[in-house]
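Good day; I would like, with your permission, to put a structural problem before you. A protein sequence and the structure tokens that stand for its backbone fold form the material at issue. The record follows directly beneath this note:
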Amino acid sequence: MRNTTVEPWVHQYVVTLYLLKALERDRKHAEAMKLSRIWGGLFERLLLLTEREHNHVKQRLRRSGCRIVLEEVTPERHYHVMYVFQGYEFHCSMMPVVLKGKCEEKLQELLGGVS
């Protein structure tokens, strides 16, 4: 059984969570770059925007009555989320390639808004 009501929000939750982790890791690498102060400022703004969106998604899930019960990386390296909505248990799984692509799309969207 698929849950089309909150499933897109669960996907957004996963994407924004992993984008936050990736931006934090990339920010640490940017500290060694020649223009680290400029890159650091850009990463700070991107992290702030991503964190706001992640919090918005979490609030939206909470308000709709959805509760994320489990987040794990499977042995096949897929990201698996189990959540409860309207008393039913649902599962969402994303392959690493798909998750990376979605994170790149979200980053492109955020970069369009950062000036």
